[in-house]
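@channel anyone free to eyeball this complex?
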Amino acid sequence: MYFVTGNEHKLREASGILAPYGIRVVRLYERKLEVQSDSLEEIARIAAESIERKDILFFVEDAGLFIRALNGFPGPYSSYVYKTIGLEGVLKLMKGVTDRSAVFRSVVALNVPRVGIKIFTGEVHGTIAEDIRGTHGFGFDPIFIPSGSNRTFAEMTPYEKNKVSHRAISLTKMAEWLISNSQQQ
Amino acid sequence: MYFVTGNEHKLREASGILAPYGIRVVRLYERKLEVQSDSLEEIARIAAESIERKDILFFVEDAGLFIRALNGFPGPYSSYVYKTIGLEGVLKLMKGVTDRSAVFRSVVALNVPRVGIKIFTGEVHGTIAEDIRGTHGFGFDPIFIPSGSNRTFAEMTPYEKNKVSHRAISLTKMAEWLISNSQQQ
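replying in thread with the prediction:
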């Protein structure tokens, strides 16, 4: 099935997460509309709606890191924040901050021909690390430690991250919906 | 003429800037599309294009503070950054940073019936203050000192800010275009 994304890392993660369900992910090059919104769900839904080819099964995904002490920053603008102030900038903002709790959220918007858009969400609670750790993954992975672990996402292998990540949760929900739905037909 | 905005402060500033040109600004409540983009011009243009009532003269405006040492952050996402990490957050990011230069940019997209969208830009260079100063204005005004002044935008009266601001420059260009264009007809 098709994944409309400009992000190589996301494509690789989605392939790894969906392969056990027998779903092969193919990248689709389509322009999509990305709106400014505090809601990842709204961003993903409008992006999916903006893609003209409604006759094929495809999905888009939007994700963000929401840090409690920073009122949800960087949230939906995580990729812009990553490429401007970077990991160092976020750690500087968190310097001396006691409440380091954060949530990584993922929203998948799936286009089902003749049905419409279905939304699947995933989130992982965790904390912001004191320093940059690990080389795997991408984006804010080197500073996010999921609850129940003492390693950052970037210190996990792709296989390990794909078992617990926000993106694994949203995409697994999508896979299960697709499977149960195809059995009904 | 009509200004499509959800920002009371911008409405007041635009009124003050355009009054000397005999232009009365009226707020128009229309939903507009705000896309994610590194370009203010693209954001303003798409917002203007998204408004259905193309039969009336209206404008939209988008602005942002671009800090050099932070690779342009907060840029097009200034209002989101303001409401999450705030002035204190930006000052914390700038702690110990020597290069404090920044630019405030404004882009106006004017819809002219039967003509299309015209773009007018304005920018003011300056520096980021060491601390929060002044009570006038809004947004990042209390930490921005325009070149040639020793006061922040928030330490200036609205009248003073409206003589030198990025928004004054873009809106004045629009006013002059409107006047010279109406004389030709």
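from a first look: Strands of chain B lie at 2-3, 26-27, 58-67, 74-75, 101-112, 116-128, 144-146.
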